Amino acid sequence: MTPIDPRIAAMYRPRSIAVIGATEDRNRVGGRPLHYLRSFGYQGAVYPINPKRDTVQGYQAYAALQDLPEAPDVAVVAVGGDQVQGVLRQCAVRGTSSLVVMSSGFGETGAEGARRQAELVAEARRLGVRLVGPNAQGIANFQSGAVLNFSTMFMEVAPQDGPVAVISQSGAASVMPYAMLRERGIGVRYVVASGNDAETSVCELALAAAADPDIRVLLLYIESLADPAVLAEAARIARVRGAAVVALKSGRSAHGAKAAASHTGAMVNDDALVDAFLESHGIWRADDVHGLVNAVELYLASGLRAARRLVVMSHSGAVGVVCADTAEKFGMPLAELDRGTVQALARIMPGFATARNPIDLTASLLSDGSMFARTLEVLAADPQGDMFLVGVPVAGEGYDVQGMAADTAHFLRRTAKPVAVSAPQACVRAAFRAAGVPVFGHETDALAALHQVSRHAALVERASLRLADVPRRLAVSARSAEPQRSTTLSEAASLALLHAAGIPVVPHRLCHSPREAVHAFRELGPEVVVKACSAAIPHKSEHGLVFLHQRSEEDVLRSYEECVARVRALGQPLEGVLVAQRVRGQREFALGVKQDPLFGTAVMVSDGGKYVEALKDFAVLLHPFTEQDVLDKLARLRVAPVFAGVRGEPPVDLQVVARTAVALGRFAAAQGDRIASIDLNPLIAGAAGAGGWAVDAVIEQVEALHG
Question: Could you give phi then psi for residue 467, rounded to 5 degrees?
């Protein structure tokens, strides 16, 4: 378990604050925090440091830190970049070990700035000081009024305490979600922009926020994921409390990654590994800022509740059809209502209305407002509906909007199921929002939110089960900082290790003479494959060292001699000639392992063949994972429909792929940093129930493996 550093916790709830570089001008970086502390009701002690003034913005000013009557819990640093290191030392001497460094001119500016930043961090760690930044917009706590932040947004959009935390590396990406949430009437407790993440990471700040029992939604903007173990602990704490964690990790594209690096000096992570990490810990990954905030109302109203079947109700047939089409794109099936439900609805609605899902109340709702509540009453008793979308495309004079909102709120409380309302009119949205019902401007956003919350709930449930018996840290083996020489094992050695790990491998023999090759053919025939075995030549087919369709002793002898001659011509060592049984199956798969210093053991699974790299249709899983996790990932590949069998073909034995992937991950994780990578290609899978075989494999090791 990763403990929460009290020095970081103090930044959220300081009892006293020094502002170094304080100024009377509230529109300057050193003046804005003072203005906010007074405006938003902070009750602790505030100490502006300004040697030229007796008071700053109504607070008594001090010439230096040593003049203060106490050591402040936190210091806000708003001085020139060249002065920051000196201020750091002064804070350490005074006993202040938590700093929010707003000063810029460090890692975000290039090589020289990165050098200065590294020196600052080294000094902070030597002195036992934690710092957020540099280049940080700061931290805001709107519960206590401790706003150590210089964003203009809090002047433009009035704050309100609430159950949401926004933790971001970027200043803009912290206040954009804040403004969007406040526009929807949602209160936000914490707004954090950590800047360069040089010493205290966005993950550590997320961990401290997740520990607040009042936070029900944690929104993260991450440019560099430097300490995933800490974020994993934050996600675990959130899962235990039923809180949702949604992350926007930028840098998916090559251009995006380059921009992130120039923005904060961030290190670029392998995006597929980031995806796998977030998913494995129950963190929903948003595509953009809109996706980061879109479902927050639904999280707060319904919590994380797995749902699958959708019921759509509206007084417009067009809305129902559009919702049905959009729901299909999201993979949300419409619920088949019980016969009793359909009959009850038919008694409520006029004969020309639609009593089946999607439900069309028609314009009759205008003349009979009670139809809305009675329909909801019937739907509440139907067991088929897991989540609900209520479309209100038009409402005005003659419609009881307040009553509709109250009825929907009652329905939400009674069923405890996810409910979203779509309404294009602002006044209608305001009525539903005031009643505590999640409401959206149009159907696509409403359906996207329902899809996200229901899928996210399933993600969290799987993560809880998968990680229940895993130590509360990432099983990541630290790699030596010293240069290491990696070596590649031969195919025979690689297959032997995989076989010992419980992975099914093709029957084969490593032969050192023509006589042994013939004996192997007699044992493994009637058809075999003959291959040269040399660790120095991992890609044998490129050098004509693979001989298929060997059906006689003469074929085997001839191929054996060819292998010896061609390897000798290449000037490479020959460990022997491998004779393998010719196996046939339904489909080829490729599996691979990467040992990542941040994320641990990653296993890649994809459709096999020579186009693997070109098509990039693959899935990545982080150890530990289950066979069901593998099957779920395979089902999302573009090629997945083929696995079920096409034009009379039997379905593929995906279970053997799943078992192999789990065994591969377990084996690689046990080896730790003694192994660099594994390439298992192909794994030939038979028809369902027939099993499969690893036909070729290459293991790259860092030091001697203990199989």
Answer: -100, 5
pTM passes above 0.85: yes
394 half-sphere exposure, CB direction, 13 A CA radius: 13
Q: So what's the pLDDT on residue 673?
A: 83
Biggest distance spanned by C-alpha atoms of the chain: 101
CB 678 within 8 A of CB 668: yes
Q: What is the DSSP letter of 587?
A: E
DSSP assignments along 632-658, one per residue: HHHTTSTTHHHHT-STTPPPB-HHHHH
Residue located via tokens 């304080």: 22
Task: Report the amino acid identity of residue 622.
Answer: L
Q: Report the candidate in 451, 455, 462 with the shortest Cα–Cα distance to residue 280.
A: 462
How many CB atoms are closer than 10 A to CB 167?
28
Pairwise CA distance, residues 35 & 24, whole Å? 9
How far apart CA 300 and CA 243 sit, in angstroms, is 9
Single out the residue of 676, 605, 610 nearest to residue 636, CA to CA.
605
CB crowding 82-97: b at 16 or more within 10 Å, else e: eebeebbebbbebebb
Domains and CATH numbers, the chain: 1-134 (3.40.50.720), 151-293 (3.40.50.261), 304-457 (3.40.50.261), 507-581 (3.30.1490.20), 587-701 (3.30.470.20)
Would you list the DSSP string of 606-617?
A: EE-STTHHHH--
How confident is the model at residue 661, as a pLDDT? 97
Sites in the chain below the pLDDT cut of 50: 262-268, 472-482, 707
DSSP per residue, 218-246: EEEEES----HHHHHHHHHHHHHHT-EEE
Q: What tokens does 527 get?
A: 């058809």
Residue 596 CA to its chain's centroid (Å): 16
First to last CA, the chain: 31
Which one-letter amino acid corresponds to residue 490? S
Helix then strand then coil, % of the chain, to nearest 5: 40, 20, 40
Give the pLDDT of residue 469.
61
Task: Tell me the Ramachandran region of residue 536: left when phi exceeds 0, alpha when psi lies from -120 to 50, beta otherwise.
Answer: alpha
What are the distances in angstroms from CA 485 to CA 499, 675, 676?
A: 25, 11, 10
Q: Give the Cα-Cα-Cα angle 428, 430, 432 (nearest 5 degrees).
A: 75
User: 20: closest CA among 43, 45, 50, 46?
Assistant: 50
The rounded radius of gyration (Å) of the Cα atoms in the chain is 31
Residue 252: predicted pLDDT: 65
- Name the H helices within 467-571: 491-500, 514-524, 553-570
Q: What pLDDT is stored for residue 597 in this prediction?
A: 87
pLDDT at 1: 65
